[in-house]
Amino acid sequence: MKKIILLSCIVLSTSLAALAQLPSFTGGIKAGLNYSSLKTKNDLTDQNGILGYQFGVFTRFGGGGFYVQPELYLGSKGNDFIKVDQNAVKGKVRFTILDLPVLLGTKIGLSKLNLRFMAGPVLSFLINKKTTFDSAYDNLKDYKDQALGLQAGAGVDLGSLSVDLRYEAGLSNINKSDTYSQKQNLFHLSLGYKLF
């Protein structure tokens, strides 16, 4: 009987030590707002950003103050354009996008109250688009199905709540036109809730 108790204690303590070495893991849902703009070179002036939305899921795992945070969320992005020359030319671009960022980060503080810093690539998939341009800019209506960007920002965890503020810079031209180069840029503000 003593051997069984001793063996049970050894197995229990070994299991607890192994669990303590596992990286922490959490995940949940998130939603927020973004302010996006399409930075366009070559000819288009007066580019006005728009307010959009995002919602989806996130996971976070790591240990020792460092973590990896993959996410998947649906969002809206776009821009309004006005070119002023002999004639005013107007246009609008609205995207529905599926974003997949993979962020690397570090955190300072406790697990339930901390300050985080993160950065990493984001791959965007075009789900739907709506464009309206005057006929002179018909070639602006064609957009690629995916784009690559880079996100960087900071966040705070307060218990089960997670707040992030990030900037996203477009790395790839999302327009199919040879004339125009457009890169998506935006600010994200999101609120997440940890489910586990």
Notes on the protein architecture:
This protein has 196 residues and is mainly β. The two termini are 39 Å apart. It is 10% helix and 67% strand. It has one helix spanning 2-21, and strands at 24-40, 47-48, 50-63, 66-84, 88-109, 113-133, 146-158, 161-170, 182-194. Mean pLDDT is 83; it is low at 14-21. It contains one helix and nine strands. It is elongated. It has an eight-stranded antiparallel β-barrel with strand order 1-3-4-5-6-7-8-9. The protein has a single domain (24-194), classed as Porin.
Brief digest:
This protein is mostly beta strands and about 200 residues long. It has one domain (about 25-195): Porin (Beta Barrel). It has 1 helix and 9 strands.
Distance between the termini: 39 Å
Number of strands: 9
Separate helix tally: 1
Strand content: over 45%
Order of helices and strands: HEEEEEEEEE
Q: The CATH topology is what?
A: Porin
Write down the domain tally: 1
Shape: elongated
Unreliable spans: 14-21
CATH level-1 class? Mainly Beta
Please give the largest β-sheet: 8 strands, antiparallel, barrel
- CATH architecture assignment name: Beta Barrel
The average pLDDT score comes to: 83
Q: Tell me the Rg in angstroms.
A: 23 Å
| Class by SSE composition | mainly beta
Spatial order of the strands in the main sheet? 1-3-4-5-6-7-8-9
Helical content band? 10-25%
